[in-house]
């Protein structure tokens, strides 16, 4: 009982008072140490045990796996085999989950081989872990193959494959599996809601959440977190407030995971006061709570408040991570705090030993660009080419955009623009911004040549899009679209506003 309540000291006292102990006594105390995070005490007790069963080994393996120490978990497994014990299905599930946290799948392949050799490949729980493992490394074909070869599929089997497709962006296939599953539960619905949210299908995620409640499937904290992630991308705040009400009524609003998701939703929807109210109501804040509030102030242009959160965070002895510095650099970038931002960037590497990512460089480059020091920004990009050219990095595009908007010297923009086009020839961003920059500098022939190169590559410009919320309803406008209700009236209002702005009488 004390072990399940993670009260290791009480469990240890009860154990020491026992005059007679059996294997269950030792394993129960070992479990108490593991779930309480006292791995050193767990190892000391493990060494004292008169006999070590599979349960004892599995308990210690689980502790290392859950604490993120996958390498120690694999080393302990080798000791287990050398002691003469054979693994069971629980051992293999723990090992597979640990391998999913490693940087490459090689160890997981070896454990899969052990699964087959030991004859545990017919156990659904083991196969479910393998499906999740292969999904983690984007090896969806392997996951599907395991699922199709399973003789006995449980609801967890279907959930694992649904989640695998949803996480990798195959949302239509995930939806098809969800519809064909013989039985679903709250995990199935959460996987689909989270999949829609991650793939930008906000409306579908919200609709599925509503349908989930109508089907009398009660959402848990993870379900609320998933739908709030979708609400954070919604163009209006009404849906997020609706979900907040549901979470409050069901008692989940006080859960830390839900509270952090609520803060993120309110901040990204521009309601900083709502985010602050949620933040202040959290009694036991974790690093995510502090980062979310700091970042919420930063993205809404409230740099002083963001820096104040960092000061309070430091006074509570909370160590910052890479997300913390992303928020700090964003705040400094938006407010033009060049020197303070530079100090944060240097301390991030020298004091806190946090390795910079492209998002950190983007903030620093933006600070240099806003201060007019484009040459320093380019010098910094040339000094860290491995980060600039890393997958998903858009640093060059960000710098080119600033060159275009500020009408800087054409040769600087041309240098950056050529790099953008060469790096991503299939994207329209580099061609369009470089063409606009050339037009602004009067180089019409060069601009036309760039447009032709874009056409030869088969690249088309993405249409512009904007939206407006009126009385709780959102209307989307796409560039070139004529199918808008009362379009003539819309143009009439635009022409009137244009005339009034150009001919306004000064007060």
Automatic annotation (TrEMBL):
It comes from Oryza brachyantha (malo sina). This is DYW domain-containing protein. The keyword Transit peptide applies. NCBIfam families: PPR. Keywords: Repeat, Transit peptide. PPR repeats lie at residues 22-52, 53-87, 185-219, 286-320, 321-356. GO terms for biological process: RNA modification. GO terms for molecular function: RNA binding.
């Amino acid at each position: 009982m004390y072990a399940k309540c993670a009260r290791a000291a009480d469990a240890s006292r009860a154990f020491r008072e026992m005059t007679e102990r059996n294997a269950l006594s030792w394993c129960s105390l070992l479990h108490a140490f593991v779930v309480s995070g006292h791995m050193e005490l767990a190892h000391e007790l493990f060494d004292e045990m008169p006999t070590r069963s599979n349960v004892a080994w599995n308990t210690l393996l689980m502790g290392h796996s859950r604490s993120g120490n996958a390498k120690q978990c694999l080393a302990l497994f080798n000791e287990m085999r050398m002691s003469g014990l054979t693994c069971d299905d629980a051992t293999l599930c723990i090992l597979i989950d640990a391998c999913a946290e490693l940087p490459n799948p090689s160890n997981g392949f070896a454990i899969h081989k052990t699964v087959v050799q030991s004859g545990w490949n017919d156990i659904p729980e083991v196969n479910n872990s393998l499906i999740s493992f292969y999904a983690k490394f984007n090896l969806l074909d392997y996951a599907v193959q395991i699922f199709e070869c399973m003789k006995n599929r449980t609801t967890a089997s279907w959930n694992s494959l649904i989640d695998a497709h949803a996480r990798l962006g195959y949302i239509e296939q995930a939806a098809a599996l969800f519809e064909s599953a013989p039985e679903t539960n709250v995990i199935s619905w959460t996987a689909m809601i989270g999949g829609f949210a991650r793939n930008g299908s906000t409306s579908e995620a919200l609709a599925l959440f509503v349908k989930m409640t109508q089907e009398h499937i009660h959402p848990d904290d993870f379900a609320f977190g998933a739908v709030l992630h979708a609400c954070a991308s919604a163009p209006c705040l009404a849906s997020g407030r609706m979900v907040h009400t549901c979470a409050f009524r069901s008692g989940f609003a006080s859960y830390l995971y839900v509270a952090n998701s609520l803060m993120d939703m309110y901040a990204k929807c521009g309601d900083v006061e709502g985010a602050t109210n949620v933040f202040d109501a959290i009694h036991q804040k974790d690093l995510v709570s502090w980062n979310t509030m700091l970042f919420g102030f930063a993205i809404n242009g409230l740099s002083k408040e963001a820096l104040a959160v960092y000061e309070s965070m430091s006074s509570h002895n909370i160590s910052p991570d890479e997300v913390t510095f992303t928020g700090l650099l964003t705040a400094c970038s938006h407010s033009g705090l060049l020197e303070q931002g530079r100090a944060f960037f240097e301390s991030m590497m020298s004091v806190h030993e946090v390795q910079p990512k492209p998002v950190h460089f983007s903030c620093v480059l933006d600070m240099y660009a806003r201060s007019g020091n484009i040459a320093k920004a380019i010098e910094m990009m040339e000094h860290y080419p491995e980060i600039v050219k890393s997958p998903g990095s858009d640093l060059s595009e960000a710098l080119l955009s600033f060159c275009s908007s500020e009408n800087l010297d054409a040769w600087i923009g041309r240098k950056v623009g050529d790099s953008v086009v060469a790096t991503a020839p299939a994207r329209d961003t580099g061609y369009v911004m470089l063409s606009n920059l050339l037009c602004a500098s009067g180089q019409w022939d060069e601009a036309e040549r760039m447009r032709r190169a874009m056409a030869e590559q088969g690249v088309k410009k993405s249409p512009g899009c904007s939206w407006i919320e009126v009385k709780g309803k959102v209307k989307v406008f796409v560039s070139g679209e004529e199918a808008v209700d009362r379009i003539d009236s819309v143009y009439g209002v635009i022409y009137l506003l244009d005339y009034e702005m150009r001919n306004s009488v000064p007060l």
